[in-house]
UniProtKB/TrEMBL annotation:
<dbReference type="Pfam" id="PF13484">
    <property type="entry name" value="Fer4_16"/>
</dbReference>
<dbReference type="InterPro" id="IPR017900">
    <property type="entry name" value="4Fe4S_Fe_S_CS"/>
</dbReference>
<keyword id="KW-0004">4Fe-4S</keyword>
<keyword id="KW-0671">Queuosine biosynthesis</keyword>
<dbReference type="GO" id="GO:0052693">
    <property type="term" value="F:epoxyqueuosine reductase activity"/>
</dbReference>
<keyword id="KW-0411">Iron-sulfur</keyword>
<keyword id="KW-0408">Iron</keyword>
<dbReference type="GO" id="GO:0008616">
    <property type="term" value="P:tRNA queuosine(34) biosynthetic process"/>
</dbReference>
<dbReference type="InterPro" id="IPR017896">
    <property type="entry name" value="4Fe4S_Fe-S-bd"/>
</dbReference>
<dbReference type="InterPro" id="IPR004453">
    <property type="entry name" value="QueG"/>
</dbReference>
<dbReference type="GO" id="GO:0046872">
    <property type="term" value="F:metal ion binding"/>
</dbReference>
<keyword id="KW-0963">Cytoplasm</keyword>
<dbReference type="InterPro" id="IPR013542">
    <property type="entry name" value="QueG_DUF1730"/>
</dbReference>
<dbReference type="InterPro" id="IPR016024">
    <property type="entry name" value="ARM-type_fold"/>
</dbReference>
<feature type="domain" description="4Fe-4S ferredoxin-type">
    <location>
        <begin position="177"/>
        <end position="209"/>
    </location>
</feature>
<keyword id="KW-0819">tRNA processing</keyword>
<dbReference type="InterPro" id="IPR011989">
    <property type="entry name" value="ARM-like"/>
</dbReference>
Length: 369
């Protein structure tokens, strides 16, 4: 018993040193129900173009395939919420919260997990450890739920009692046997279905079942091809990611705010630290005028936007421009009809058509032909 207490003490001390907000332990066993759900989800093709999810699927649900001899999984959480939780305004450019004003969390998280993992192997001899942020092979949310860090909501996010779903997850798989902790009490969705009702593309097909192919987060970040025409209006003004199904969640209304200092050790372009700028037409204009991948990489250095690449982000910006109904953007879109990327040319043409439609009560002035 004395040994158990000291193992937990050391782990919690290491987590505190890295300023993680949450830390829990899960056994490294196969979670049978989650495995079956995952295999069916793949079979339905709901992973879209994320082919890596299809590759060696056993690595997603069997931790021993990743680290032979693994006994425990340490789940770490970093809160990224902001106060107040409110529904995004579709007259402005919208960006998922994790990407707003912050450097790429993978870099911040990786640094912390790497130091944590090193200290762990120094504290306990002859153990192995491997760490991952969300690009790792393991399905981390089911293990986070198994560790009792929170519960999985109908919107498929992990909902924690402290921070709601505004939590980024990372994990350390280790051959160290760590006794499980006392389960925490947390809520449930009950009869609520706000996330299902608000999802503009009906990506949440039913409770707990997210079809990535329809999800705005997937379409604007992971998807590298065209955005299906029938979904473009529903994307509204989401430029990068989507938070709607989290913004409406009653558990997030009660969530604590995050501590911004955790993100400050990696620098980003000063404009990108400004929320007002990120939701402005000026930001959209800036994106629509980025000429090369190199220019894009310099402007968005150390930020999550890099993941979309120049072509992907301009594609998204065209859709937002078309849906915002602001005709100031027409010349910017017209310049893109000569872009070397066919994807950009096609999305720019779509946005131009949208902006030239009769105004239907929009505030923009009429076009002078
Ligand atoms: S992120 Fe947006 S599009 Fe995706 S499920 Fe949630 S509300 Fe729907
Ligand atoms: S919005 Fe309601 S149904 Fe959806 S995850 Fe939150 S509590 Fe559950």
């Amino acid at each position: 018993m004395h040994f158990d207490v000291s193992v937990h003490k050391i782990i919690h001390k290491l987590a505190y040193e890295q300023s993680f907000d949450l830390i829990r332990i899960s056994k490294a066993s196969v979670l049978q129900k989650d495995k079956e759900f995952y295999l069916q989800w793949l079979k339905n093709g709901e992973q879209g173009e994320m082919a890596y999810l299809d590759r060696d699927p056993e690595r997603r649900y069997n931790p021993a395939k990743i680290l032979p001899g693994v006994k425990s999984i340490i789940i770490a959480g970093l809160n990224y919420g902001e106060k107040p939780t409110k529904i995004s305004d579709n007259t402005k450019v919208n960006i998922a919260r994790y990407a707003k004003n912050k450097p790429d969390y993978h870099k911040v998280f990786e640094k912390k997990l790497s130091t944590f993992s090193e200290s762990l192997t120094q504290n306990f001899s002859k153990i192995n450890a491997k760490f991952y942020v969300d690009y790792g092979p393991l399905m981390e949310r089911p293990y986070a739920a198994a560790s009792s860090m929170g519960f999985i909501g109908k919107n498929t996010t992990l909902i924690t009692p402290q921070f709601g779903s505004w939590v980024l997850l990372g994990e350390i798989l280790t051959t160290l046997e760590i006794p499980e902790e006392t389960p925490q009490k947390h809520g449930s969705c009950g009869s609520c279905r706000k996330c299902l009702d608000i999802c503009p593309t009906k990506a949440l097909k039913s409770a707990y079942d997210l079809d990535s192919r329809l999800c705005i987060s997937y379409l604007t970040i992971e998807n590298k091809g065209p955005i299906p025409v029938k979904l473009r209006k529903q994307i509204g003004t989401w430029l990068f990611g989507c938070d709607l199904c989290q913004e409406v969640c009653p558990h997030n209304v009660r969530a604590q705010a995050y501590v911004p200092q955790k993100w400050q050790d990696i620098t980003i372009e000063p404009d990108l630290k400004n929320s007002m700028y990120l939701s402005s037409i000026a930001f959209l204009k800036k994106i629509l005028t980025i000429k090369s991948e190199q220019e894009f990489k310099i402007f968005f250095k150390n930020t999550p936007f890099l993941r979309a690449k120049r072509v992907g982000l301009i594609r998204n910006a065209c859709i937002v421009a078309g849906n915002l109904g602001n005709r100031e953007l027409l010349p910017y879109l017209e310049n893109l009809t000569n872009d070397e990327s066919e994807l950009i040319r096609e999305h720019a043409a779509w946005a131009i058509d949208e902006l030239k439609k009769p105004l239907h009560g929009r505030n923009s002035p009429p076009i002078v032909q």
